[in-house]
Input
Amino acid sequence: MTTITNVKTMNEVAEYYTSKLSEYGETPRGVDWNGEEGQTLRFEQLCKIIEMTNHFSINDLGCGYGALYDFLDEKYKEFSYSGIDVSEGMVQAAEQRYLNQPKARFVVSNEPDEIADYCVASGIFNVRLGRSNDEWRYYLEATLDMLDRTSRVGFAFNCLTSYSDSDKKRDYLYYADPCVLFDSCKRRYSRNVALLHDYGLYEFTILVRK
Output
């Protein structure tokens, strides 16, 4: 995530998620989600970007221990998956978990090392670690530019929503305005943009089809 701000931020993010993995293991809570049901629901929204019925490639930015691979493997026969994460501990866990899966590869990095048909990013914009709204918005925009550069067909991402109930909001989390991001994606990346804000979580997903 050095593209966002600096090496210090990247290290802080890596340490945050490595500590979650150490505490909760290879579970949704280990990547800072509440549970498996919500994690699966997020994967369903993100993967609506996939329209190819034959072989496709996908980059998973902020892959954690690689749980998205399992979801994809149940739905699609032919695909290649690259998981990218700044946490070395996460990548090591993913490599061991999918040691015998030739369709999966994992990289310690803040950005994909290859262009893929699709890019997805789940949860990487949520925990701002003391950064201001302006700093985190700059990170978000720079990362969306990266997702655009490294995807051929389209990309998808999610954010906590600014429409969250005020009593549910936390100071260390970032709540994005879905309308602002929808407009930005329409203007910057494609005419074909979808905003999904109807799946029962305090967040939204945006799909950008090129």
